[in-house]
Design brief:
This protein has three domains: 108-145, no CATH class; 150-236, Immunoglobulin-like, CATH 2.60.40.2700; 244-576, 4-Layer Sandwich (Deoxyribonuclease I, Chain A), CATH 3.60.10. The protein is an alpha+beta fold. The strands form eight sheets. It has a seven-stranded mixed sheet. Strands 22, 23, 24, 25, 26, 29 and 32 form a seven-stranded mixed sheet that branches. Helix content is 23%, strand content 32%.
């Protein structure tokens, strides 16, 4: 076990065990046949393997031998013998004395055993160095561990707040995070005291001012690899005080029971957008730079989402790394499973989570609108219509907008299925006509899923639609049709006119109504986000109240030190009819 101080430890898998083998405990182990350990990293896609073992005292005795996988075992064992001779030469002697000592030294026998039988010398290295083999070097015996679970990266966030859950970024080779062990310790009287286990940890007020340490032991479900310890870069800090979501969570303390279904839709503001100089200087100049940092905002987001006790959570603007290393493990600890869909050529996308005790994922039907329009015969008629205006066609096909569609099944009643759509439509204020094309593609795709693939499956459609309640898109979604002369068809001027009438067969309603705003920044306040529900299947039981205007504007606008995004989460309880 090795103690590593700092906020991050990284060793890329391509560097192999050579870079991190020093963290292995290669000394004698307890057990009926106590022996040292020889760690072998052998990956089929690489030409070489690495043998790591200790041939002498201290750090200088650690050896990392890279050998060709196709090379004979006999040659590799000969190299180990040579390294042992070098380890036996005492430091401080001149070059000639060292050469003389090496010449006089007698190489010990070096043999690799499988069971009681020596492995033939003409066996290739890739075949010879198997897990559980025993390497005999003179009087010393080494148990071979081939490709043990190994940490290649362990990182703690730069911001750790009391009362807010957080987790480490973990990357492994030959293991799974779900099979790994995590133990949290705090500073105590010059030492360390264990305080919790599990990947996600919520420090309390008693931890303020103290550093934390994470001890992680990677696993693969069959065995555990060497543990690594990592100290936090700084002490636990006090939280920001009251957050905009605190009052809302008074209404969500209890998870809903059947026939209720709690749904959340939330644009959480991608770090890729929050951290630009333009964002800091122009979009959110009122927000302190530290409150725009991803680690700080993730503290708030995880506490906010965990406190809503939802059944389904649809998120937009989710950074890929945030999903993998922050949201997915945290929400997993809260009882959720999640799936992610990235936008093409982007670093962010969509994430849908569902409560694992109530639902299971049957299938996914994700797509990119541009790709579907260009290649799926289902949208051929629509493609022909917009092809009449090449400017519109090009603009639609250039967009990276994604659509995430999940079909869930109730664990309590297998006959009860649910289709959940999640999207983030084109953002431009003058892009109403582009959004109409995108939503038309979405509805035809949803019709295929809910009528042809899973007949009579009800729909919940969430997202940031970048459309206000007086838009053509909102009219199309809630009324089922839009006329060819709607003003939104010329939202970017006559040169991009693409008049057409559209219809869709879903009977949908905005479950949270038409709030004054769901997006509140310095230059814009308006309702852009919705949870559209199937009126044939659901009715609204309750809408969780929004933060008060005073709370939203307590730091002028959003995001702020008490609110992690420029959007506000939509939360409602629906009731199955």
């Amino acid at each position: 076990m090795c103690g590593l101080v700092g906020s991050a430890v990284r060793s890329p898998p391509s560097a192999g065990l050579q870079r991190f083998a020093a963290r292995f405990s290669s000394g004698p182990r307890s057990g009926p046949a106590a022996m040292q350990t020889a760690v072998v990293r052998c990956v089929p896609t690489e030409t070489k393997l690495t043998i790591s073992l200790r041939l002498g005292p201290g750090k200088g005795g650690q050896r990392h031998l890279q050998r060709e996988q196709s090379e004979s075992l006999r040659t590799a064992l000969g190299r180990i013998a040579q390294h042992l001779l070098k380890a036996q030469v005492k430091p401080g002697k001149g070059r000639k004395a060292a050469q003389a000592a090496g010449a006089l030294a007698q190489a010990p026998p070096v043999v690799l055993y499988q069971g009681e039988q020596p492995v033939p010398g003409d066996t290739s290295n890739a075949e010879a160095w198997q897990d559980g083999a025993v390497l005999q070097v003179g009087e010393t015996r080494y148990r071979v561990e081939r490709n043990p679970p190994t940490l290649t990266q362990l990182r703690l966030p730069g911001s750790i707040l009391a009362g807010f859950p957080f987790c480490a970024k973990v990357e492994l080779e030959f293991g799974e995070v779900s099979h790994s062990l995590f133990e949290w310790l705090r500073e105590e009287g010059g030492g360390w005291e264990p305080v919790a286990s599990g990947r996600v940890f919520t420090p309390g007020n008693g931890h303020i001012g103290l550093k934390l340490k994470l001890r992680c032991q990677p696993g693969d479900g069959r065995r555990l690899g060497p543990a690594v310890e990592l100290e936090s870069g700084g002490p636990v800090e006090a939280g920001p005080g009251a957050c905009t979501f605190d009052g809302r969570q008074k209404f969500t303390r209890q998870a809903p029971e059947e026939p209720l279904l709690r749904v959340v839709s939330y644009n959480i503001l991608a770090d890729a957008y929050a951290q630009t100089e333009f964002s800091r200087s122009n979009l959110y100049p009122y927000c302190p730079p530290y409150a725009l940092e991803v680690d700080y905002r993730q503290n708030l987001i995880k506490k906010e989402l965990g406190g809503y006790n939802a059944d389904i959570i649809c998120l937009q603007e989710v950074d890929k790394n945030v999903f993998t290393n922050s949201l997915a493990p945290a929400l997993d600890a809260f009882g959720f499973r999640g799936v992610f869909r990235i936008k093409e050529k982007q670093h962010e996308g969509l994430a849908t989570f569902f409560r694992a005790s109530k639902y299971r994922l049957i299938s996914q039907h994700d797509m990119a609108f541009s790709e579907a329009l260009a290649s799926d015969p289902l949208h051929l008629e629509l493609l022909e219509k917009i092809s009449a205006n090449p400017n519109v066609k090009e603009k639609v096909l250039q967009r990276s907008t994604a659509f995430q569609v999940c079909v869930l099944q109730s664990l309590k009643d297998s006959s009860k299925k649910l289709c959940v759509g999640n999207t983030h439509l084109y953002w431009h204020p003058k892009g109403g006509h582009i959004r109409l094309v995108q939503i038309a593609i979405a509805f035809r795709h949803l019709q295929r899923v809910t009528a042809e693939m899973y007949p009579d499956t009800p729909l919940i459609f969430c997202g940031d639609f970048n459309s206000t309640p007086n838009s053509g898109l909102y009219e199309f979604v809630t009324k089922g049709h839009i006329s060819a002369d709607h003003p939104d068809w010329t939202s970017n001027g006559e040169e991009e006119r693409c008049n057409m009438s559209l219809t869709q067969s879903f009977k949908l309603k905005s479950a949270c109504g038409e709030p004054d705003y769901t997006n509140y920044v310095g230059g814009f306040q308006g309702c852009l986000d919705y949870i559209f529900m199937d009126m044939n299947t659901f009715e609204v039981f309750q809408v969780i109240p929004f933060p008060s205007h005073e709370e939203v504007t307590s730091h002028l606008a959003l995001p702020s030190v008490s609110h992690p995004s420029d959007h506000i989460a939509l939360i409602c309880d629906l009731k199955w009819k």
